Amino acid sequence: MSNQDRYEQWKASRKDVPAPPDFADSVMNRISGETPNAEGETTGPHESQKVSAPPQRTFAESSVSPSLTLLATCAAIVVFAARVAHMLSILWPVG
Amino acid sequence: MHVDESAIIRQTLDGNTNAFRQLVELHQHRLYRFVCNIVADRHTAEEIAQDSFLKAYEKLSTFDSTRASFQTWLFRIARNRSLNALCKRKPVTTEENDIPFESAPDERLERAEWKRQFDVALDQLKPEQKTVFVLAEIEEMPLREIAIIEDVPLGTVKSRLSRAKNSLRQSLTFNPID
Fold first, then answer.
1. Based on the domain organization, do B104 and B167 belong to the same domain?
2. What is the ipTM of this complex?
3. Quick check: A23 and B102 CB within 8 A?
4. Is the dihedral of CA A65, A66, A69, A70 positive or negative?
């Protein structure tokens, strides 16, 4: 057997490492708070042990288009500025 | 079978926790194997791999599919946790090491010996060389993907891989890596 063959065999042995059969269950249990860790110390579900749910979609991921939101914001600023100008014209009338 | 990961991620973000299981089942073996090859201890590897999935679940809303695939992102989380574990652990002697994986009774002594030499040589690599070597040679990931996981330029990945192979050659009594 050549050294390269030995190397390939060693790599193959390193690839033959499947996750434990209950791995996915353990992860999902930890997410729901039923099992605290990989040591199998089950304490039953507790709210305090639940993994925080992923936050709801952020602004960038929401279904509302960012450009639409920007347009609405600009419109609100224009309306606000117009109201301020109107109030100023009442308080300090020109002429 | 094609799995639409972005759809699964959207479902999870919309509150369907069970959808995340599909991502776990899809990536669990490869991620566990990667961590196991870095930390060389099955129990520690299981804990780190589980923690990595939990962190991914918690931070899923920050995942940006335009920058990397979910697998790359997940491996980056696991890589950082594995290196933290390596820094914390005591130096492992060959006898204490959980590797080698095979110990068939009919295995020839010589074969066992060179496998042991490989295992020890891998374990003695610098952590940043070890992760690059495992990702490139055992996981057979493209170097560009490894650069994202390692958060270093492509050239750095290439030099780390080259140094890792040189170190392995020097550690072994024979020269296996062409």
1. yes
2. 0.78
3. no
4. negative
